[in-house]
Amino acid sequence: MSFTVITAGLQASIQGAPYRTMRGSAIPACGAADPLSLALANRLLGKPSGALAIEITATACAFRTDMSMHIALTGAAQRLYINDRSVSPHASHAVHGGDTIIISAPDTGVRSYLALSHDIDVPRPFENGSTCFSGGFGGLDGRALENGDVLSLRTGQFSVPDNVTPPGLRPVFTGGFLLRYVEGAEHGYLDADSAAWLSSQQWRASPRMNRMGIALDGPVLSLADKKNLPSGAVFPGTIQCPPSGQPFLLGVDGQTSGGYPCIAQIIRADRHLIGQIRPGDTLKLVRKRPLQAQQIYRQKMDFWRQYLPDFRLD
Amino acid sequence: MNGHDIYLADDWILLRDLEPAAIWRLTAAADTQVEWQEIVPGIDSLALKYDPLVLDLEAARMLAVQLYDRADTVTPQLAKPITLSICYDLQFGPDQALVATHLGIEIADLPDWHMAQDYHVAMLGFLPGFAYLQSAAEIVDIPRLDAPRACIAAGSVGLLGQQCGLYPVEGPGGWPVIGRIAASLFDTGKTPPALLSPGQKVSFRAISRAEFNALDAP
Fold first, then answer.
1. Dihedral pair phi/psi, residue A18, rounded to 5°
2. Last residue of a domain, one of B71, B90, B122
3. How much of chain A exceeds pLDDT 70, in percent?
4. Cβ–Cβ of B41/A185 closer than 8 Å?
5. What CATH number does the domain containing B49 carry?
6. CA B65, CA B29: separation in Å to the nearest integer?
7. Closest to B198 in 3D by CA, of B115, B116, B120
C-alpha cells in the first residue's frame, strides 16, 4: 500500500502532534504549523486530532494512490481535484488505486492538510513521528517530501462519521490577522515609543519566514537596554527583538532557547494562526493580561472541543 | 514569598536571575510536580510551561513559589561526569588560529588549554541535543564568525570564550570551531535522547585522527 508524491511543492512534510515535554533536550515543538486545520482534516476521517497527515505549503501539490481509501483536505487550499474532477475541501472523499490527487495553490493562508484514512507508516521517535527538520528525525528521514517519494501506508483506525465540516467551523484566512499577546519577559527593555508601537502600529509579515518564524516589518523598534542576555527558554509565539529592531515571531519549529530580548508572547489561544501567515499579510497585535489570555484560551477550547473532543492547543 | 524574580506569561513561567546550582535544584524539584508540561533550564533561568485548563494563573504562580522552598530540600541527581574524546586535527578545527589569537596563546597550545578547562553543561538549546558548556574560569569573549558556515559537521566543538558549544547534528553554525568529538550527542532511540544534561561535568581527552576514525566507523 503506497502513496506517491508526484509534485511536493515548496515544502510538504509529514506532521501531526507537536513533540511535548522535550524542550529541555532542545527539541522544538514541530508538528502541524496550524494544528486546528490538522484536527479538522483528521476529524473528517474519524481520526485523532493529532494523527499524522501531509502538511502542504503555499504551492500546488500532486499525489497518486495505489489503493482505495478516503482523503480529506483542510487549511488554506480551496481547490482539490481527484483526477479531473473538482471536489470540495472540508469533506471526505473516496479515492481508488491509480487516482491522482491535485491540490491547487491557495490564494490566502499558507498551509493545507491532506489527511489519509490509512495511517502513514513512518518511524515514531518519542511515540510521535512529526518531522523535525533541525534534528533530522521524524516524518520521512526528518526531511521535506520530494517528488517521487513513496509513503507506505497501513490500515489504521478510521471511520467517516460525517463527511463535511459544518460551514461555520471552517477557518477563513483573509490576509489579515489579529494576534493577542501578553508582554514578554523583557518587554521593559523597549523604549516608551517602541512599547506603544507594538500594539498601535500595523505590522506586516516579511518574506523572511518559514516554520521556524516570521520577521515582522513595521517601525524599527529601539531597545532602551541593549545589554546582552544570557540564553534562556523561548516558545512558539514568542516575539524577540534583535539589535536590528526588526521583531521576529517564533513558529512551531522555533528553537527552544534564545538570547534576544523577548518583548511579547502571542497567547496560547492564538498561536495556531501563526502557521497561516503569508508574506505581506497584515498583523494587528492586541495586548492582553495573562489572566485574560487564559480566559480566552479556555473559551476557545470549550468551543472547539464540542466538535473536536480530543483537540489540544500548545 | 517575595524577593523571587518571576515572569508570568499566559501559559509559562520564568524563574530568573538564578545561580547554576539553584537552577539544578529547582529543576529537580519541578520534576516532582506533574503540572509542568515543559521544564527548560536556561543559563541563569528556568522556564516552566503548563496548560491553563489544568492550572490557573495564580495556582501556577503559587506552585512556582513553592518550588523555591522545595528546592532547598532536594539533592539534584546530576548525571555523572563524562570525558569526551576529541580530535583537534586542523581539518576538524578550522578556526583554531582565530581562537588562539583571541586567547593570546600559540595554536599548538590550544588543545592543552581546552583540556585544562573545568566545564559543566549549563543548558541544552539551539538544536536538538546541542549542549552549552560553561567554563569555571573567566575567559575573554570570542565573537561568532562574521558569516556563519552553511554546514558544520555533527560533533563539532565551538568556542565563544567562557562558553563551549557541542553540535549534535550537521547544520549551519556561527561558532568558531576548534575540534570534533566522536561521541553521538543526540539519539532519538535513547531516553533521554541527549547525551549530556544540565549540571553534568564535562572534560575532554585528545585523540588522534586515526583513533577518531576508528571510533567513528560504523
1. -70, 160
2. B71
3. 99
4. no
5. 3.30.1360.40
6. 11
7. B120
The residue range of the domain holding B54 is: 6-71
Instruction: Tell me which chain A residues have a C-beta less than 8 angstroms from the C-beta of B5.
Output: none
CA-to-CA dists, residue A84 to A79, A81, A155, B95, angstroms? 12, 6, 27, 57
Cβ of A135 within 8 Å of Cβ of B186? The answer is yes
Q: Do A24 and B124 touch (CB under 8 A)?
A: yes
Rounded Cα distance, B35 and A2, in Å: 41
Q: For residues B31 and B12, state if they share a domain.
A: yes
Helices (H), chain A: 35-44, 192-200, 290-305
Collect all residues of chain B within an 8 Å Cβ-Cβ radius of residue A255: 125-127
Note the pLDDT tens digit of each residue in A199-250: 999 999 999 999 999 999 999 999 987 777 899 999 999 999 998 999 999 9
Does A142 touch chain B if contact means CB atoms closer than 8 Å?
no
CB atoms within 10 A of CB A273: 21
Peptide bond into B192 cis (omega under 30): yes
Q: Mark whether B183 and B206 lie in a shared domain.
A: yes
The average confidence (pLDDT) of chain B is 95
User: Are residues B89 and B189 located together in one domain of the fold?
Assistant: yes
pLDDT tens for A144-173 read 999 999 999 998 777 776 689 999 999 999
User: At residue A29, what is the residue type?
Assistant: A
Q: Minimal CA–CA distance to B175: which of B136, B120, B130, B206?
A: B130
β-strand pairing of A176-183 with A282-287: parallel
Q: Is B125 on the interface with A (CB under 8 A)?
A: yes
Contact yes or no for A23 and B169 at CB 8 A: no
List the beta bridge partners of residue B194.
B186
Predicted confidence at residue A161, as pLDDT, reads 66
Provide the chain A residues 15-34 that lie in CB contact (below 8 A) with chain B.
20-28
B150 and B211 in a single domain? The answer is yes
Inform me whether the C-beta atom of residue B12 falls under 8 Å from chain A C-beta atoms.
Answer: yes
The backbone torsions φ and ψ at residue A163, rounded to the nearest 5 degrees and listed phi first, read -100, 5
Residue-wise pLDDT tens digits, A31-54: 999 999 999 999 999 999 999 999
Q: Could you report the predicted ipTM of this complex, rounded to two decimals?
A: 0.96
Q: How many CB pairs under 8 A join A and B?
A: 129
A300 CB neighbour count, 10 Å cutoff:
18
